[in-house]
Amino acid sequence: MDMTKYLDVFLEESREHIRSLNSRLLELEKSPGETSGLNEIFRSAHTLKGMSSTMGFDQLADLTHHMENLLAELKEGRMVANSRVVDVLFECIDRLQIMTDNIAQGNNSTGNNTDLIKTLETIRAGHAETAALETVQPEETVEQKELTPTSSSQDMVYNDYDISVLKEALKLGYNIKYMKIGIAPNSMMKAVRAFMVFKVLEEAGEVIKSNPSAQELDEGKYDDHFELVYICQGDVETIMAKINQIAEVKLLQNYSLDPAALTVPEPTTLSAPQAEISPAEEQAAHQSKIPHLKHTVRVDIERLDNLMNLVGELVMYKGRLEQIGSIYKLGELNNTIEQINRITSDLQSVVMKVRMVPIEQVFNRFPRMIRDLAKELGKDVDFYIEGKETELDRTVIDEIGDPLLHLLRNAIDHGLESPQERMRLGKPRQSKLYLRARHEGNNVYIEVEDDGDGINPNKVRARAVKNGLLSTLEAEKLSDEEISMLIFESGFSTANVVTDISGRGVGLDVVKSKIEAMNGEIIVESRPGLGSLFKIKLPLTLAIIQAMMVTVQNETYAIPLTSVDETTMISPHDIKNIQGQEFISLRGSILPLLHLARLVELPENVGEPDDIYVVVVHKGSRQIGLVVDTLIGQQEIVIKNLGKILNGIPGIAGAIIAGDGNVCLILDIATLF
To answer: Model pTM greater than 0.70?
Structure first.
């Protein structure tokens, strides 16, 4: 069997098991006496061992095998999960992650694990009186199933040739066995499991017949079990034990066959007559099968991207139809467009939901990092995660991990005090760190909160003046909230000591830039001595957004609505000029004006218009008025990437194809000025 076609499935499942090992081991460290988590750890390690062995990654399988031996000691109560045991198991998980990453990159030379295996065996030998390897109990790897009287070899159909082969085998002294093999209902590698069973059987005998066929088993085309007839010489019990050691596999039924008792069915009869079944019994039987059906499929993200692009094209042409209908005032066309609009919106909504994944995929990376970092810095941190079921578009999920990682590391390194300092201040010895997520409208809000020292506004003011960011007078005029936002300025840091963790002055500004590049926002609230709260606001998706369409010198531009506060119309006489900078007074506040034509290097209008259109946008906490020629209005747009050559141009986030077929640029307010 060609195993390369299963590599992607193997890698995905391996990463899932490694994530499970990390999270379960963290739980075990907190509650060493809790056996349910230990059973899950044991199962994940055992399954990973089986998959690795089948795929031919022997070093990975060998390491998980020795992990399994140590876990068996814990499971049987002969050892305690002390800090040394937990630390070495975490080290094993790290090594498994590295080996899996190497395999994903095509490097099947997964390194030497002799040192780690020796450590595992040393710990085990120091606690266990015997070094005998623990074998996996079948009931711990596969869901138990009740056998019915009809689950027998009579379900298989034999021909004359099958029966003659079996009779000849019996004459030669072979054991003839009927076996029913069960596979875990949630197994994603059914073909691999069947291959593993056949591999064990063919080491000592031969499979004469199977149901489904060998080809169907090779393709994974069966439900949760398959049947086979097997002949062998020697110890059948050893073979059965090996089958039961395969991950996600259970030998459901096994008995000797008498070929003389087998019959060839009539040509028109494929099964034995069945007793009458009442409608109620039939319905109950049907309903009992429903929970075993699969309702999910794994889809390559590229296919979802292509689907989203097609929906984007549909949205674009819908806009063109609307424009044609409005120009020519075609009533019937407008009615059809309304129907297309409804269907397009429904399709767009469905595709968006398909692309949504739980933010848990990102959040689950952090507990292990928090544990290791707190231990390294000598801090006692209780980490809480809330709202991990909150869903985001896959593209946003892929981008948000690094900013959150830095915020959490920064909180532990700078925000949270040592246990001794907290006790001196009258605080609980253990610090609290929260990571939350929630939906609100078309946005997702993520919060990172700690109960540490908080941000000292006076310290920030002094550092801002020292670094030349503000004059002393400007610093005094700003509120504490405005001062706190200065920590996001490039190169700004209040850390007295530069560490490998953070405090190098190159972090929070990058966090802010990355979040704004996703059309998001970040603010910080802090109370000195009580802690800090970082709030991130993100759109649900980056693919289709609402935008304000404007024109400058007959060129159309799109401004993401998340950056727009309002639009207004002013008279040229309302504009004041102070030292070369134009301002207007808007509801008692001074609003700086910038001409979009100048920012995008287009010639400005000659003469003075009667009315001037202004789009009020925000960049962080700062508001700016963009002067444009006309306002077209709000539209739904599909963002198109500009490609490698034009990517990264300041002030430009992407492009769209407008309803009239022309290409329009999408403005990136964060980098425009």
So the answer is: no
